[in-house]
Amino acid sequence: MQEMALECISARKVFYIRKETRPTAKPSTEWYASPGERDVGGQAVAHAGAGRAEPDAHAGAGERERGAGVGSACAGVRCNSNGCLDIRSACNGGPDSRASRGTGTNGRHRGRLAVSRAVATLFPKSVRVEAVSGVTFSVKRGEIFGILGPNGSGKSTLIRLISTLLLPDEGEIRVFGHDVVRERFAVRRLINRVSVEAAFFKKLSAMENLSYAARLYDVDIRWARERAIDILKRLGFSESKAYEPLEDLSRGMQQKVAVARALLTSPVLLLLDEPTTGLDPVSKREVQDYVLEVRGSHDTTVILTTHDMQEADRLCDRVAIIDQGRFVALDTPARLKAGLAKNGETVTLEDVFFTLTGKALKESRLEEEDYSD
Amino acid sequence: MIELVREVRRSYALVERNFNLIKRYIGWEIVFLVYTVVNTLTIAFIGVNPAGGGGGGGDRVLYLVVGALLWGFLSVLFHEVAESVQWERWEGTIEYSFMAPMKRLSYLGGVCLYAATYGAVRTVVVMLAVVSLFKLDLGSANLGAAFVVLLLSSLSFIGVGLMAAVLPLLSPEKGSQAAHILEAAILLVSGVYYEVDVLPAWLQPLSRLSPATYTLRAARAALLQNASVRDIGSDLALLLAIGVVLIPLGLKVFNWGELHAMRTGKLKRSG
After folding, report:
1. Nearest Cα to A203, choosing from B180, B93, B137?
2. Quick check: B91 and A167 CB within 8 A?
3. H helix count then E strand count, chain A
4. Residue A51 sits in which domain range?
5. Inter-residue long-range contacts of A31-37, CB under 8 Å, 24+ positions, other chains counted
6. Cβ within 8 Å of B, A 218-247
């Protein structure tokens, strides 16, 4: 029976994210608009504005300023998708401004709003987010296992659970039989990770960063330096660049150093969290080729998260698609595609992804990542 | 034994890394050093001619200089240890460093070793500048006893630093600020530039909780009054006791803070 590199049984991780849920100011006619101070859209307009309300030329997409009249550069009500906000007092209100004096109904409303905002700032609301929800899977030794999912779907949380940086709330995760909670130290000896952002001391050179990594993992420093050069060359990285501060190198080059750093410690389980994001096509292909080479020559099991469907199709023996913390599919790329194909039509992994997650890739990329992914 | 050697080698990773960083931030290092030298000289000049005149002289200068030098050393030690987590988070390396197969004791040991070495080098440079300008007479100073004070106070300050290092793990945004408040409180109550009896009565009990109080009292006795190790034995014993209690306690608190961060997802660059 083939040895299991990873067993993940009903893993669950919940975050409580503190969010400052600012109350939005819904403008209404009772605020501060008097007859004649109203723009064509029915929004309250600036007291200072004598002229016709025009959208502000400086306002960005989805955000425009209403009611800026003649002689007033910024007076008006700024609106976006969350509602509108009176900015008159900030710009030119001053002590004489009707709004800033806070008289009458308008003043009371503004006062309440200010208090609500202060309370929201002091006591942010906790929002419960189930980042990983009852995920079960196993990875065989030597396998390349892909995890596909949109931003915020739980991919990186899963990787961080496996890499002992997070404690699961429920379930069990074992790396070569070692529990990631109770035997953290043993697990850490077996793994290494490349994260989506090349996390380095950017003032230090590639070689200084790699030396640091080698010492942390107690790898012989001379051997490590020679091996680091070999790996970097193999990834198309010139030796002379290895001694320049990383901040002077492109993101693609930094990501190659991150791959070299992970491989330097000869991990038996390699966690690649979007390792080729931001790389040009040539660099991407070099990294992908090297991952395949490492799997072939070093008995390394790889868990790869990616947005790149072609990459997953090319590299992965099996693929899991994760959405809102749950696996919605798990099989070989060929079987996943075959499952969707009708009447002999050609189906890509991207089609499978869209069908199962119900999201356009473009939309998923625009999603805000507000916790760990 | 082999495992111990490995852990020491891993600790050295932190020392080497931080000295490499100093080389890269050399401009800032020079600025900080020059500022510290000038600051210490300024404090020493107050001793030469205090505001309002009278009472100045060699002993007063030395009294203030000892305070400035020791505080310089201890605050560097405290800063480097207390901000080690925040520094990793700022650089974006916290996840990488914390998932390495390294005992936390070794990690923090490396940070402390670097901090003590770096602090000592800086203090010696500042001391040379001050001594050369003020022609301070250290003929009657017991330098050996002062060194013992420095050694034992390092232990206690490392303990305090370890407790403070956990704060950025608990609160990524406010933890570092809290560490600075703690440092400021120690500066106020420990008698760095004055005797603690000038403090208001309600503040004086706090001075007894600060290891810096015993450090300064013992160091001044050794340097100004030629006190021997035996003479300052009670202060040294207190410093040792504080270190012996605070270092394991600091490690325990740090481990607890790390587990909390792992549970709540704060062990990452953005918190």
Report:
1. B93
2. no
3. 13, 13
4. 22-123
5. A31/A86, A31/A105, A31/A106, A31/A109, A32/A86, A32/A98, A32/A99, A32/A106, A37/A67
6. 218, 245
Helix (H) or strand (E) holding A19: strand A4-19
* Nearest chain A residue to B103, by CA: A185
- Structural domain includes residue A15: no
- Chain B positions touching A216 (Cβ under 8 A) are 10, 13, 97, 100-102
d(CA A221, CA B10): 11
Residue B154 CA, distance from chain mean position:
7
Indicate the burial class of B29 (C-beta count within 10 angstroms; 0-12, 13-18, 19 or more): middle
Regarding whether A327 and A178 lie in a shared domain, the answer is yes
> Within a domain: residue A8?
no
Which SS3 state, helix, strand or coil, does residue B200 take? coil
A15–chain B Cβ distance below 8 A for any pair: yes
Residue A326, Cβ density class (10 Å: 0-12 exposed, 13-18 middle, ≥19 buried): middle
The residues near A284 (Cβ < 8 Å, ≥ 6 apart) are A276, A308, A311
C-beta separation of A209 from B92 below 8 A? no
Q: Is A269 strand, coil or helix? A: strand
Q: Are residues A149 and A234 in the same domain?
A: yes
| pLDDT of amino acid A89 | 35
Cβ contact (<8 Å) for B99 and A163?
yes
At residue A33, the pLDDT reads: 36
Which run of H or E residues covers position B70? Answer: helix B58-82
Contact A185 B97 (CB under 8 A): no
- Cα separation values, B40 from A266, A365, B62, B128, B176, Å: 50, 54, 11, 11, 25
Sheet holding A144-148, edge to edge: A191-194, A269-273, A301-306, A144-148, A318-323, A326-331
Tell whether B4 lies on the interface with A, counting CB pairs under 8 A.
Answer: no
Question: For chain B, which residues make up each domain, given as ranges?
Answer: 2-264
DSSP A143-172: -EEEEE--TTSSHHHHHHHHTTSS--SEEE
Per-residue model confidence as pLDDT tens digits over A109-160: 667 777 777 777 777 778 888 999 999 999 999 999 999 998 889 999 999 9
List chain B residues with pLDDT less than 70. Answer: 50-58, 269-271
Q: What is the pLDDT of residues A194-215, one digit of tens each?
A: 988 878 999 999 999 999 999 9
Q: For residue A216, give the chain B residue with the closest CA.
A: B10
DSSP A212: H
CA pair distance B223, B141, nearest whole angstrom: 4
Domains in chain A, number: 2
